[in-house]
Amino acid sequence: MPKLTIDGREVEVEAGTSILQAAEVLGIEIPRFCYHERLAIAGNCRMCMVEVANSPKPVASCAMPVADGMVVRTNTPVVAKARKGALEFLLINHPLDCPICDQGGECDLQDETMAYGYDRGRFAENKRAVQDKNFGPLVKTTMNRCIHCTRCIRFITEVAGVPELGATGRGENMEVTTYVEKALSSELSGNIIDLCPVGALTSKPYAYTARSWELKKTESIDVLDAVGAAIRIDSRGNQVMRILPRLNDDVNEEWLSDKSRFACDALVRQRLDRPYVRRDGKLREATWNEAFTAISERLKATSGARIAAIAGDLADAESMLALKELFTALGSVHLDGRQDGVKLAGPRGSYIFNSGIAGIDRADVLLLIGTDPRKEAPVLNARIRKRWLKGGFSVAAVGPKADLTYRHDNLGDDPAILAAIAKGEHPFADKLKAAKNPMLIIGQGALTRTDGAILLGLARKIAETGGMVRDDWNGFNVLHTAAARVGALDLGFLPGIGGRDVEGILAGAEKGDIDLVYLLGADEIDMARLGRAFVVYQGHHGDAGAHRADVILPGAAYTEKNATYVNTEGRVQRTRLAVFPPGDAKEDWTIVRALSEVVGHKLSFDTLEQLRLHLSAVSPSFATLDRLQTVDWGAFGAEGTPASDPLVSPIENYYMTDSISRASKTMAECTATFVGCAHQRSGTHG
Amino acid sequence: MPRFAAWSAERARAIIDDYRDTSGALLPALHALLVEFGHIAPEAIPLLAEALTLSRADVQGVITFYHDFRTTPPGRHLVKLCRAEACQSMGSASLEDHARHHLAIGWGETTEDGEFTLEPVFCLGNCALSPAVMVDGELYGRVSPERFDAILASAGQSTAAPEQTP
């Protein structure tokens, strides 16, 4: 490995490392605009220049590979002069509009100008004017400010995989633009806002609303899909202003999908901020006591066998456990945390993404079953694309034809193909056998079908016969779409012995066998089928569930509570309270705890710590935070022949999948722009 | 008689196909299209992108980077007039005024009869013999307004004469 000296300090790095990266190893920071560690090297901003012994001119350190015996200096007058010169050129056409620029305060160009800028300009001519571009409802452009680092172009081309951005012209006439004036059709487009080192690309919904130094930053976890991306919630007063990604190499690297980033405007819209009780057919505002009394009276008049609870997609583990304990105490076994009817239970290995998201980097063959990862988990899809770009990776799909941003072989959407692969009769089975680390991803599009258990069994057979399950590798992966699902399965928010599942509860309510249904944020069930049942809805948004409810208990959204979620990999992560719930709304577990006292089955925990200890006792997986755990593998799935209905993706409109994103104005705009106006507006849909 | 063939997608596809298997094929392919049609029609972009497995944005970027890859058909004769420093110091400014006045067109425009297109360039590498002009690829030095008229007149005659195919 080459050894070189930087500023008099020796460092040994791998061959092929750039000088800039080698300097970073030593903790020497070199200013840069165009270089980004997750993008290809462009070498066009010229800010990272350093002096290399025996080189006649300063060299761009981001694009210069290290060589043995190289002597590099990063802090000489020559370097400072070169950087000052580069910066002066960049500033020639950069407008002086920092006071009205949204990037102000977190702008690389501002920071470097403080370090290398002159206090006045020598350029007396007019600055150039560039027409702003239309990048869609999420990204605001002010192209006068662009310094042509091309980070956005590289991101959209390399990571997002939709080559729509490019540069036209050259020199002063260079412009970054979409090929044909149209909105960026990527679910990851928001990331170019973070990447832009200046204020050329800023967030449209966040425009002119806050300054970065006014914001309180809270590190948390995203729950709008099942990836569990690390996020930073920026809030001012009691309002979430924006959401940014945080670094987590194992999950989201440093990307965040558009829904997770931009749906936060819904956190102040359509909120349930006080309890409601239905009287004379109309929901009326009530106090907590009135709401609890109404529920308690009903419960006392109803036997445990006739009450049921369903947990929704955004429910946290603490509140689900509290509700489970309460219903068990009330004598009910009708519990289900799988409102979409997914056929998962059984050993932990059967319902999580066993290889881990980072495991995709090690795979060499991938089979997608009934899933469109681009819509269901855009960040995870970007990870697959990253692996595909490295080469030696082939992808096949049994399921819907989808535009996945990487080349893949669609084998068809007939479930019979799976049976053929499992039996080894399909050519793809040979490919699996030849692979070193084969992997499959089975999606909710397959598992929520009535024959989901059979498909699960087929997937298990493919995994076992295809060499996916070994001591050092498990390539059997379930891709969830709901943040709550794995948590519900872990803690057993499932029908007890003789209990009804979601379908059974709905059928029972329809027939009149179930008299009371408790919805913990469950909005994606057919409310019409609840029949004459008394419905308690605990949640944060006025969506379908609240509309049907007889009593509404206002809960907290994920930015307003300290709560535990388990992502699709089985990674236990915690959200943190960034702002307080609005009005009378409360953290969800405390609502269940308070209700338990009123109905006379006081739960045994008084604090969140006690509840969490209890959670670890119920399911040991909750004791390990943020890390993946070894899981058990066993028999699961059913035998049989699947129905011949084609496999489809469960998500039709990526921008609206839950009660939060349905209430978001930004997501409604995205729907109109990218999905078309197929979405029907209704009273509950903002 | 036009010097260039009229745009034909079929012909363009045939030209591009010759470059399909060469590495770094975009520039040579663009040059070949330029020789054939005198310009790069926007219709050629998807053909190039598909044949060379590039994104349309990439192709568009390269075309707009080089000024010679014009996107509209030029006149029968392409007149390039140098406006760089050396020529300026030898009086190219008055030559520019003369040229635009004589042809009654502005930069980048084509005369009404479709005969001449006037384009500015920045250095033809003929600084020792400034001011320099290039007509249909032929370089002329020390061009005075009178000489300019004579060069254009002889170029105009060559179109009137029967076309000779090489």
UniProtKB/TrEMBL annotation, chain A:
Presence of keyword Transcription: no
Task: Extract one GO BP annotation from the record.
Answer: ATP synthesis coupled electron transport
Role summary: NDH-1 shuttles electrons from NADH, via FMN and iron-sulfur (Fe-S) centers, to quinones in the respiratory chain. Couples the redox reaction to proton translocation (for every two electrons transferred, four hydrogen ions are translocated across the cytoplasmic membrane), and thus conserves the redox energy in a proton gradient.
PROSITE patterns with a match to the protein in the record:
2FE2S_FER_2, 4FE4S_HC3, 4FE4S_MOW_BIS_MGD, COMPLEX1_75K_1, COMPLEX1_75K_2, COMPLEX1_75K_3
Q: Which cofactor does it need?
A: [2Fe-2S] cluster; [4Fe-4S] cluster
Protein name as annotated = NADH-quinone oxidoreductase
Q: Name one GO molecular function term.
A: 2 iron, 2 sulfur cluster binding
Paste the cofactor note: Binds 1 [2Fe-2S] cluster per subunit.
Phylogenetic classification of the source organism = Bacteria, Pseudomonadati, Pseudomonadota, Alphaproteobacteria, Rhodospirillales
Q: Organism source for this protein?
A: Telmatospirillum siberiense
Q: Which UniProt keywords apply?
A: 2Fe-2S, 4Fe-4S, Iron, Iron-sulfur, Metal-binding, NAD, Oxidoreductase, Quinone, Translocase
In terms of PANTHER family, this protein maps to: NADH-UBIQUINONE OXIDOREDUCTASE 75 KDA SUBUNIT, MITOCHONDRIAL, RESPIRATORY NITRATE REDUCTASE
Q: Which reaction does it catalyse?
A: a quinone + NADH + 5 H(+)(in) = a quinol + NAD(+) + 4 H(+)(out)
InterPro entries documented for this protein: 2Fe-2S_ferredoxin-like_sf, 2Fe-2S_ferredoxin-type, Mopterin_OxRdtase, Mopterin_OxRdtase_4Fe-4S_dom, NADH_UbQ_OxRdtase_75kDa_su_CS, NADH_UbQ_OxRdtase_ferredoxin, NADH_UbQ_OxRdtase_Gsu, NADH_UbQ_OxRdtase_Gsu_4Fe4S-bd
For this protein, what is the EC number?
A: 7.1.1.-
Q: Which SUPFAM superfamilies match?
A: 2Fe-2S ferredoxin-like, 4Fe-4S ferredoxins, Formate dehydrogenase/DMSO reductase, domains 1-3
Q: GO cellular-component terms in the record?
A: membrane
UniProtKB/TrEMBL annotation, chain B:
The record, for SUPFAM superfamilies, names:
Thioredoxin-like
InterPro entries reported for this sequence? NADP_DH_HndA-like, NuoE-like, NuoE_N, Thioredoxin-like_sf
| One Pfam family matching this protein | 2Fe-2S_thioredx
Keywords on record: 2Fe-2S, Iron, Iron-sulfur, Metal-binding
Membrane in keyword set: no
Q: How is the cofactor bound?
A: Binds 1 [2Fe-2S] cluster.
CDD domains recorded: TRX_Fd_NuoE_FDH_gamma
Q: Which cofactor does it need?
A: [2Fe-2S] cluster
Q: Gene3D superfamilies per the record?
A: Glutaredoxin, NADH-quinone oxidoreductase subunit E
Residue positions annotated to bind [2Fe-2S] cluster are: C82, C87, C123, C127
Q: GO molecular function terms here? A: 2 iron, 2 sulfur cluster binding; metal ion binding; oxidoreductase activity
- The lineage's top-level taxon is Bacteria
Q: Which family does it belong to?
A: Belongs to the complex I 24 kDa subunit family.
Known PANTHER family for this protein?
A: BIFURCATING [FEFE] HYDROGENASE GAMMA SUBUNIT, NADH-QUINONE OXIDOREDUCTASE, E SUBUNIT
- What name does the UniProt record give this protein? Formate dehydrogenase subunit gamma
Taxonomy, top ranks, is: Bacteria, Pseudomonadati, Pseudomonadota, Alphaproteobacteria, Rhodospirillales
